[in-house]
Amino acid sequence: MRSSDLERVKTLPMFANIAPDTFRVATAGANLQRFPANTTLLREGDPVDFLYVLLEGQVELHSGWDDRETVIAILRPVSTFILAAVVLDADALMSARTLERCEILMIPGDAIRTAMQLDARFAVAVSRDLVGAFRGMVRAMKNHKLRSGVERLANYLLVLRSADNAGSTVRLHHEKRILASLLGMTPENLSRAFGTLQSHGVKVQGSVVQLTDIPALEALAKPDPLIDNHAPRDGDILIDADAEIWSSEWNRATMGKLAPRKAG
Amino acid sequence: MRSSDLERVKTLPMFANIAPDTFRVATAGANLQRFPANTTLLREGDPVDFLYVLLEGQVELHSGWDDRETVIAILRPVSTFILAAVVLDADALMSARTLERCEILMIPGDAIRTAMQLDARFAVAVSRDLVGAFRGMVRAMKNHKLRSGVERLANYLLVLRSADNAGSTVRLHHEKRILASLLGMTPENLSRAFGTLQSHGVKVQGSVVQLTDIPALEALAKPDPLIDNHAPRDGDILIDADAEIWSSEWNRATMGKLAPRKAG
DNA sequence: CAGCCGGATTGATCGACATCAATTCCGGCT
DNA sequence: AGCCGGAATTGATGTCGATCAATCCGGCTG
Hints:
Two copies of one chain form a homodimer. Chain A has helices at residues 3-10, 20-27, 83-88, 109-118, 120-146, 149-163, 176-182, 187-198, 214-221, 240-254; strands spanning 31-35, 40-42, 50-56, 59-65, 68-75, 79-81, 95-98, 102-108, 169-171, 202-205, 208-211. Chain A is an alpha+beta fold. In chain A, a hairpin with a 2-residue loop joins β10 (202-205) and β11. The longest helix of chain A has 27 residues, at 120-146. The radius of gyration of chain A is 19 Å and the shape is globular. The interface between A and B is large, with 62 and 62 residues. Chain A binds a DNA duplex through residues 148-150, 175-177, 185-192, 195, 206.
C-alpha cells in the first residue's frame, strides 16, 4: 500500500489512537482497491478473509432466500463491513455489492484478530464499531416490526433531512427500487407510499423530494429517537457509534420534551 | 458478592481466561440479584448503569412505539444483555423484563469499560459477545423480511428441535402470545399458523408440539443455515458467539450438500 | 432523431395478516 | 368441586401490501 494511503488510513476512527506497532500489524497486507459499480464483493455463506473499509462510494448489503431477496443495509463512507464475521472468523451472513464506483480498503482478517489481541485500545475501537452496527440493526428491527410502510418512508425522509443537514429539500441517494427493498416493500408500494405522503407535504420529482410541511410529516411519522437516529452526518460524527452517542446525549439534553414518553 | 458466587462468575465465557486483575476490576461492585417474574428491569430510553448477565430464568427484550409493542428477543442462560449500551455508555434501545423468576448478575458499566481498556483479552471476549448479538439480529431481520408468518413458525420449531437436541417432540418455552410477538404476528394468527402446519405433521397440545413428519415440515420451512442457527444448545455451546462458529463450521463441513445454494 | 431499454408509475386484483367479536380452554383459587 | 380470569382458539370482516399487467418516462444508442 502506498504511504500516502497509509496516512489516510491512520485517520480512520477505528485506527485512531492505537499503538504504532498495532497499526503496523493491522495494516500488514492491507490493500486499497477500486471497484466499478455493480460488483459483487462477497457472497453470503462465503468465508470472510478480509475486513472491508468503505472509503468512497456506496455498498449494499443484501440477502436472499428461496428466490426472494432483500436489502439489509446501504453503507456510505466511512464504514467498515463484515466486521462481525471477521472477528469470529465466521461465514458472511450477507452479500455485498457496490452500487457505484467504490474505493475500499481490504485488511486481512488475521491481522485484525491479531491486532485485537495485542492492543486493548484497538479491541475497544472494534467493539465500538460492532456496537454501532448492532444498535443500527436493533433500530431497523423496531422500525420494521412496529411501523407500516408509509410510516417507515416518512421517517426515512426525516432522517435523511437530519443527516444531510438540509432544509426543506432532500435528495434520495439510491434508486427507488433499492430504497423500496431497504424499507421492506415493493417498488409499486413505494410509489403509492409517496403518493400518500403528498397530502402531508411531500413532493417528489425524480430523486429530489421537497418537504413543504415538516410538522404535518412529523405528525404522521412520529419520529422516535429510540428508532430513528437523527444525528447529523456531516461534522465530526463519522461512524455509527458516534451517532449512537450523539443520539443518547441529545435524548438526555432534551429529556423527552420533544417526544414525551408515557409515564408509568 | 459472596465468594462462592465469584467462583461461579469466573466460569462464565466472558470472564474465562482473563487476567486476575481484570477480573477484580470487572467484578468490583458487581451484584448477584434475584427478581420475581414479570419485573421490568430496564425501560427503553433509560441510561444504562449496569451490564446484566442472566444466570437463571428467562428475560424478554421488548420495545414499543405509538401504542404498538413487540418482543425483540427472549434470552435464556447464560446471556448478557444491554452490553451494547454499556460499551458506549448510551441509552437502552429496548426494555427488559423477567418472564419468570430470574437470577441476574449486575456489573457496573464503568467497571466493564475500564476492564476493556486494561485487558485486551477481555475486550476481545466482549467483542465476541457483541458479534453474537449482532449476527443474531441480522438473522432475525432476514427471517422477517424474507419469510411469511407460517414459514417463520415452521423454522422456529425446527430450530427448537435442534437446540433442545430433541427427537420428534418439542416444548415451547414461552406463552403463545409472547411467541407470537417474537415471530412478528398476532396471537390469533399464530393459532392459525399452527393450524396450517397440521397438514405438515405438526400437532399441538398446549406447550407440547409433536413433529410427526420432519421431512414435510422441512419442505415447507426450507431452513437455511444463514438464517436459522441450528447449533445444539446443550453441550459446550453456551453463548451465541459459539453457536455462530458452530454454524460456520457445520456449513463448511457439509459444503452446502444439504442446502445447495444456486451457483453464481 | 427514432428506437430501445430499464426503471418508475398507475390500475386492478389477490393473498396475507390484522382486527373485532365470541366462545372455549386451562390453571389457580376459594 | 365450582368459580374466576387470562390465555387460546375460532369465525367474520377489513386493511395493507404483493402481484400481475399495462403504460409512462428518461437516458442512451444506433
